[in-house]
Write the structure tokens for this entry.
Amino acid sequence: MEMLDRRHTVATQSYNRWLIPPAALAVHLCIGQAYATSVYKNSLIEHFDASQTAIGFVFSIAIVMLGLSAALFGTWVEKVGPRKAMFTAACCWASGFLVGSVGIATEQLWILYLGYGVIGGVGLGIGYISPVSTLIKWFPDRPGLATGMAIMGFGGGAMVAAPLSRQLLSYYDPAYDPSDAGSLADGHALTLLFVTLGIVYFAIMMLGVANIRVPAPGWRPDGFDPSQVKKKALVTENDVSAANAIRTPQFWLLWTVLFCNVTAGIGILEQASPMIQDFFREEGTSSVTVAAAGGFVGLLSLFNMAGRFVWSSTSDYIGRKPIYMVYLGGGIILYVALALVGSTSTAIFVLVAAIIISFYGGGFATIPAYLRDLFGVFQVGAIHGRLLTAWSAAGVAGPLIINSFLDSAGGAGSLDAGSYRPALFTMVAILGVGFVANLLVRPVAAKFHEDMSAHKSEAQAEREAVVSEEDPTGSAGNSTARLVLSWAVVSILLAYGVFQTITTALKLFS
């Protein structure tokens, strides 16, 4: 357990920084399973003889705990280092599945709440933030690219988990047909699914734990000149503590920006399948089949993941503030287009919705780099954790806005494109608020800057640790074999998810 201490995670000068992205992806691809809970939701409803709301509460608890644990443990993550934090996240996430399996086996819903919701939710929060600040420190030359690579994994996690869960359920319950939307898995299969996912995810996350390192104080990439970064607008050379960050107007402006961007995007994600069917409904019958609607959901997942990488990487060139003008301003235009002309063509509807969701994913991936620009790298992970409370709030607000308008319009089965317009125009207004908040962002005032002289002794101790101690992994840390193996594992997972998603999405156009 001593090897989890921060002093044992300080990398030697020759450590290959390209081992860090697959370490982050190994964690985020696993915890991204949270977005795939709908796969077995109906089976849980049948097994527990419970309502949609009661089972949906499992996911809600997990997301709320994600935001709370990220905010509460953010400073601790920065203090103990990413390895101990990622190990803790792996233990909580895996334990959440195992405890949840006990709840399913005994038909005690409160145990499922405790396991997947509370314990697993803590693993979600710690696992989400623990690799991000480390990546930023390893890639000061490309922070948007770095955070995009990691958080792309969270979006891709559902693409892996959804088809994998269906295939496992069909293996454990031969009567379950994953191609039939009305087919339900039994309680035994659900129990074994949770046990399997808990074990597999723990093993994959431990790959990340083994590879993660923090750079030695003073390390920089070959050929990187920090003075070039400091000349960019809003990029500071100073540092702000997490305690001071929440006292700045910049923090709350970015909280508003993230809240608005997520509220708008999650409203579509939560309603994606019925929404495309309703938009093309005439006289009570939709021209879009259930299978095609499932393909649309898969396509959105693909754009959600791709947007996290592409848009965040683009922000390295055009800046964080301009890219959020694209997310929010472009989102306003696209939501108006969706409301007015989305029902004229399936292709138009799919294209517009897909770009909106790519902005949603891009917003998640870009926000850590935006925080780094404004507040420095000192406690950027802790600041990021506090900002994620905006996600928790948006996760409630987005679906609530959409569902409230739809309920007043008549409810499922009787809706058409016109039923969605009030909700879509409400999202336009919300994006407008976020657009204004982003325009108001300015550099952080000097009075909030941290006096880093007090932390020099700690940095010196880390330097001495690197010099006096051999890397416990030896030369393997830099070996080509280790690099290839690490990237192969995460690449295979991503390729599997993308293949399954594209195969499903083709049904939309068949």
